[in-house]
Amino acid sequence: MSEFDIQRELDGAKGRYVIRQDGAEAELTYSVTSPTLVIADHTGVPDVFRGTGAGLALVTRLVADARAEGFKIVPLCPFVNAQRRKHPDWADAFNV
User: Fold this and answer.
1) Potential cystine with 93: which of 31, 66, 79, 82 (Cβ 3.0-4.6 Å)?
2) The whole model's pTM is what?
3) Is residue 1 part of a domain?
4) How far apart are CA 37 and CA 24, in angstroms?
5) Residue 29 belongs to some domain of the structure
6) What is the residue range of 44's domain?
7) Is 43 in contact with 55 (CB distance < 8 Å)?
8) Taking the alpha carbons of 10, 16, 19, 21 in that order, is the dihedral positive or negative?
């Protein structure tokens, strides 16, 4: 997987992970429902990022942060949920 510079932004109860490249942004948005629960609600990857692994990199970062910070992820976003199913080793990070 390619290395990406993933920024984490939080504004109140809404947050996102974002990769910026050549004026485009790939993002994974989430909502903080409690200190121990985050809902991953949307992943948006523009065409310029297609095939680069950007979407997977965003989900991987979310899982890493969940493990490090002790919160669980509710995978409302279809892409995040699909990645969860492809990576059974991530089960500890999800609340499903």
Assistant:
1) 66
2) 0.95
3) no
4) 29
5) yes
6) 6-91
7) yes
8) negative
